[in-house]
Amino acid sequence: MGRLTTKVVLLAVALGGAWSSAAALLPETAGGRLETESINDSLLTPPREEGPVVVHTAFEIHDINDISDVAETFEFTGVLTLTWKDPRQAFKPSAGEFEKVFQGYYQFNELSTRWYPLVILTNESGLYQKSGVVLRVQPDGTSTLIEKINAVAEVEMDMRWFPFDDHRLEAVFQVLGFNRDEVLLQAESTSEGSLSDRTFGVPQWTITKSGTSTRDRQAFYDGRRSVSSAFVVSLDVERDSFYIRRMVSFPLAIIVLLSFSVFWMDRSSLGDRINVSFIGILMAVAYQLVMGDILPKISYFTLIHAFLILSFMTMAATVVINLVVGAMDKKGSYELGDRVDRRCRWIFPLAYFGLIAVIFGAARLFF
């Protein structure tokens, strides 16, 4: 029993000495907390200065992967750069060390446990991936955060001019958790203009212009309404209409013109004339189904819808003329039936192309 008591006492003394040595390495503050822990907590908040923390923001577009009409989204890849100054991060450079660099998410999350502006994509649509991160800290506390981003953004597209439409695609980045009085995004000056010298490889689309700007957005933090700062990357794109004209407009126009051949057919062959007209009508319906898969589920008319409906109604009108000519043939009014056919040979083509021009002109005027 005496030996066991002696061992317990020696173990207690050893543990007490080890704890005293460890405590001596970390000086305590007046409140009893470790000084290093207190410093880390203060660095997890934005720097307190007069006015908000200004974060200079830039975005370099690397590629536009896809532009979806049906989902009204676009997928892009690029590099987001955030630059701000935090005097608490200032350090005295040593020989051969003029900045601190943290590469990869392990170094960024574990070794550089300091405050940084958390920016999110507000119009994200299912995909937001970050494939790399670099944090560079200058001796005066200027920090630059660089992230590679691949994301899908949702936009509202006005398809009334389809297939001659153009759109502005926007990716809206917003500061999370802080209002504009605390953290303010400021877009760096970038050269706006044509991007024809850059190949993005987006089928049917041409990117004509890019730009960046900032705006204010309403946000709710902690159950209160506030105004947050947002950074907007915008792209102006134009659709190359040749694909739709080649696959839809031109073939359907040829089918409509061929349906006018009934006016050259014998007036007594009413069944054959009706068959030709109905084949054209079925082709127009098939093209409408095809366009339903290409366009989003929109409730307004587009140019291509007007063209399809006009083609459908024109070929439906040939059925009416066929029935009228057939009725005249039964009554023995052969000369009157021939006169109707001869006039329809030029009235229908002129009316068809004339109405197409009227529709296009009205769209220009009202849209």
Word description of this protein:
The protein is of the alpha+beta class. The protein folds into two domains: 53-239, Distorted Sandwich (Acetylcholine Binding Protein, Chain: A); 243-366, Methane Monooxygenase Hydroxylase, Chain G, domain 1. It has seven helices and ten strands. The strands form two sheets. It has a six-stranded mixed β-sheet, with helices on one face. It has a four-stranded antiparallel β-sheet with strand order 4-7-10-9, with no helix packed on it. The radius of gyration is 36 Å and the shape is rod-shaped. The termini are far apart.
Topology:
Elements: H1 2-25, H2 35-43, E1 53-68, E2 73-85, E3 100-103, H3 104-111, E4 119-121, E5 124-137, E6 142-154, E7 166-175, E8 183-187, E9 205-221, E10 224-239, H4 242-259, H5 270-294, H6 303-331, H7 334-366
Parallel strand pairs: 1-8
Antiparallel strand pairs: 1-2, 2-6, 3-5, 4-7, 5-6, 7-10, 9-10
Throw out a few tags for this protein.
367 residues; alpha+beta; Acetylcholine Binding Protein, Chain: A; Methane Monooxygenase Hydroxylase, Chain G, domain 1; 2 domains; 6-stranded mixed β-sheet; 7 helices
